[in-house]
């Protein structure tokens, strides 16, 4: 076995072992406390739970009981899925042409543009959130909001879309550019020399070869948006404690009122002392992240991502 192959084998073994340990340990913690999910006010009052468990079984937190029956959970999940799908759609529409242009064309200051987008990936979400607050509360964007009579900050739409789009777009762009870089441009040149237009060469040659990487980039952009926390919290805040009159009729119709971004809801529940409720919400995010990575591996796109 060559040295390069041995190094790659060691890296893969370490990475999959570490990721598997984290995932399985999360599963263990959740399953070992799954009976806590059935605790609710009625069960405690009627002693139904203690009759089953016995007097020695400690009830950790009554508010974790039946979290899936809590409208706050479903509204938060609905809010997060709706906003992240919108964010992913915008990131895809803007990101794929940008990645293709960066991969194929000579653009002035191209290296600076790539460094700027790559820097966003390693930047903390809190920094993104602060930058957005400054950007939208001063200067031309503040004047634009005054003329529109609308505030972007501390709003569900478009505030949450903007907060989740920055890192989602940057990560998706990185995956899509790596995909196009892996496709030899000579294939397109040969197709064009045979009479194909630029669009037809892209559709019949480049796109089929880059399809799995493009799909992986879409999944990665969506997963990054789902995992966003600091930028959403800084730029939009929380909505659960706001009065119902604060929300529009459309927001209530879409079941997004008095709900939070799921990762923000995890933080909020822990802050309120509902540790088990927060852990249950966190496990939902673990499942979504694990399934997303599994799908990316199944379509054979892991080489474009890491």
What does this structure look like?
This protein has 306 residues and is mostly helical. Helices cover 74% and strands 0% of the residues. It has 15 helices and no strands. The longest helix is centred in the first third of the chain and has 34 residues, at 71-104. It is globular, with a radius of gyration of 23 Å. The two termini are 22 Å apart.
Query: What is the radius of gyration computed over CA atoms, rounded to a whole number of angstroms?
Result: 23 Å
The unreliable regions are 57-63
Largest sheet: none
Mean pLDDT: 81
Strand-pairing-aware structural class: mainly alpha
Number of H- or I-type helical stretches: 15
- Into which percentage range does the β-strand content fall? under 5%
**Overall 3D shape:** globular
Number of E-type strands:
0
The secondary-structure element order is HHHHHHHHHHHHHHH
In whole angstroms, how far apart are the ends?
22 Å
| Share of residues in helices | over 70%
List keywords for this structure.
306 residues, mainly alpha
Summary?
This protein is mostly helical and 306 residues long. Helices cover 74% and strands 0% of the residues.
Please specify the SSE layout and strand pairing.
Elements: H1 3-32, H2 41-45, H3 48-53, H4 71-104, H5 110-122, H6 125-137, H7 139-148, H8 156-182, H9 185-193, H10 198-227, H11 230-236, H12 249-253, H13 262-271, H14 275-298, H15 302-305
Helix pairs in contact: 1-14, 4-8, 4-10, 5-8, 6-11, 8-10, 8-11, 9-10, 10-14, 13-14
């Amino acid at each position: 076995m060559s040295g390069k192959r041995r190094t790659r084998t060691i890296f893969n073994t370490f990475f999959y072992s570490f990721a598997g340990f984290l995932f399985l340990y999360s599963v263990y913690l959740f399953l070992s406390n799954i009976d806590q999910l059935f605790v609710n006010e009625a069960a405690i009052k009627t002693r139904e739970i203690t009759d089953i468990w016995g007097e020695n079984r400690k009830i950790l937190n009554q508010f974790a009981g039946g979290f899936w029956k809590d409208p706050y959970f479903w509204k938060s999940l609905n809010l997060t899925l709706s906003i992240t799908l919108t964010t992913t759609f915008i990131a895809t529409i803007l990101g794929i042409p940008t990645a293709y242009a960066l991969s194929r064309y000579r653009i002035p200051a191209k290296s600076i543009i790539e460094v700027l987008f790559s820097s966003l990936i390693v930047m903390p979400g809190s920094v993104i959130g602060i930058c957005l607050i400054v950007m939208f509360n001063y200067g031309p964007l503040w004047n634009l909001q005054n003329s529109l009579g609308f505030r972007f900050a501390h709003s569900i739409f478009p505030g949450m879309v903007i907060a989740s789009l920055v890192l989602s777009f940057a990560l998706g762009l990185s995956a899509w550019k790596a995909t196009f870089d892996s496709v030899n441009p000579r294939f397109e040149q040969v197709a064009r020399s045979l009479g194909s237009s630029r669009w037809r060469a892209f559709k019949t040659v480049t796109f089929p070869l880059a399809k799995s990487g493009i799909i992986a980039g879409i999944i990665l952009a969506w997963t990054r948006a789902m995992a966003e926390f600091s930028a959403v919290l800084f730029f939009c805040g929380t909505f659960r404690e706001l009065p119902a009159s604060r929300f529009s009729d459309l927001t209530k119709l879409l079941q997004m009122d008095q709900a939070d971004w799921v990762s923000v809801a995890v933080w909020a529940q822990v802050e309120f002392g509902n540790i088990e409720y927060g852990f249950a919400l966190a496990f939902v995010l673990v499942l979504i992240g694990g399934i997303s990575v599994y799908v990316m591996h199944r379509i054979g796109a892991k080489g474009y991502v890491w």
